[in-house]
Design brief:
Keywords: Disulfide bond, Endonuclease, Glycoprotein, Hydrolase, Metal-binding, Nuclease, Signal. This protein is mainly α. The protein is built from 12 helices and 5 strands. The two termini are 27 Å apart. A 3-stranded mixed sheet has the order 4-3-5. The chain has a two-stranded parallel ribbon with strand order 1-2. It is globular, with a radius of gyration of 18 Å. Helix 1 packs parallel to helix 7 and helix 6 runs antiparallel to helix 7. Helices cover 50% and strands 6% of the residues. Bound molecules: 2-acetamido-2-deoxy-beta-D-glucopyranose (NAG) (7 copies). The site of one 2-acetamido-2-deoxy-beta-D-glucopyranose has 2 residues, from loops.
């Protein structure tokens, strides 16, 4: 197995491990995905990651896992690559129909981007001959987008922009539904449920991957081991989870608290 291939495989594996919780996909969610992924890399893949990371990252992939969010404005072209809009209330995803940007340009969605940056990283082994791509950026985009595609509301309905326009209360605070899934659930889990720091939280999840969940993890690896990444499968899983869990029972102005939180967090423990 080449290291170029194994890197994407691992991110996908890791992100897949958390049907709901890791979805955090605010800073903490991305941090956790990248930390666990980097800890599990083979030596060859790890060397490649260290080689591609800028020196100021000190070989720490997590520290740059939100880079793609930070460059959204500098690289305006990249902002449609973080999500997929699907038709309202259909609760399914279709690449041909949905993977495009607002101008209708095909492939410009998070699924297309994962394929794009995986393909670029596959040229890593040839990079001594000079890759035509910036593989540092490819790595940082891929690590981030694999997190995003597993956040159910990053594959959401068009008219509410994946929950962004649905204003709710998360306990006593105002938030929109998208933000609840990007950040609030995971933060509440860390603070109130597991009462732990993001580092410890990542370690707990890591232990579950090698222990309790190892059988399922092997199954998740299959898609990627076949040298086939399957972002469209992840996108379909996300919109299903969005309908079954994220949108369900929520309307404009809803107050979401313990009942919503407790019923969504366990989905973490592997519903998929
Ligand atoms: C990696 O970076 C993150 C975020 O900047 C930091 O919290 C963490 O302590 C760093 N890890 C190591 C091993 O330096
Ligand atoms: C693929 O990557 C290149 C280089 O970053 C970028 O210009 C292009 O927009 C990307 N396309 C997609 C669909 O991700
Ligand atoms: C690697 O580079 C060589 C020569 O530049 C080219 O023939 C080959 O197709 C490349 N391999 C891959 C996997 O891109
Ligand atoms: C690749 O991208 C990184 C991050 O944007 C940047 O710092 C670096 O200068 C780029 N490398 C080249 C060769 O352009
Ligand atoms: C969380 O843990 C800290 C120490 O690790 C402790 O001081 C605090 O009381 C705990 N909070 C709750 C709500 O259990
Ligand atoms: C790890 O697995 C145990 C047992 O299924 C579960 O109780 C715990 O919540 C899991 N931890 C995390 C962070 O998912
Ligand atoms: C997975 O690999 C097997 C054996 O190499 C092959 O027959 C099958 O077509 C592959 N599946 C996909 C989706 O590529």
């Amino acid at each position: 197995m080449t290291c170029g291939f194994q890197m994407p495989a691992l991110f996908i594996l890791i992100a897949l491990s958390f049907p709901v919780l890791i979805h955090g996909w605010g800073v903490d969610g991305h941090y956790i995905v990248c930390k666990i992924a980097q800890d599990r890399l083979s030596t060859a893949a790890s060397d490649a990651v260290n080689d591609l990371l800028p020196s100021y990252a000190n070989n720490n992939l997590s520290s740059l896992c939100s880079w793609a969010d930070h460059v959204k404005f500098r690289y305006r072209w990249s902002s449609p690559l973080h999500y997929i809009n699907t038709p309202d209330n259909l609760c399914n995803y279709n690449y041909q129909r949905d993977c495009k940007d607002d101008n209708g340009v095909a492939g410009r969605c998070v699924s297309g981007a994962i394929t794009n940056y995986t393909d670029q990283l596959l040229t890593y082994k040839n990079s001594s001959s000079g890759s035509q791509y910036n593989l540092t950026e490819a790595l940082l985009f891929l690590a981030h987008f694999v997190g995003d595609i597993h956040q159910p509301l990053h594959v959401g309905f068009t008219s509410d922009e994946g929950g962004n326009t649905i204003e709710v209360h998360w306990y006593t605070r105002k938030a929109n539904l998208h933000h609840v899934w990007d950040d609030s659930i995971i933060q509440t889990a860390e603070e109130n449920f597991y009462n732990t720091s993001v580092e410890e939280f990542a370690d707990t999840i890591k232990k579950n991957i090698t222990g309790e969940w190892s059988e399922k993890v092997t199954k998740w690896e299959t898609c990627s081991k076949n040298e086939t990444i399957c972002p469209d499968v992840y996108a379909s899983e996300s919109i299903t989870a969005a309908c079954d869990w994220a949108y369900k029972g929520v309307t404009e102005g809803s107050t979401l608290e313990d009942e919503y939180f407790h019923s969504r967090v366990p989905v973490v423990n592997l519903s998929a």
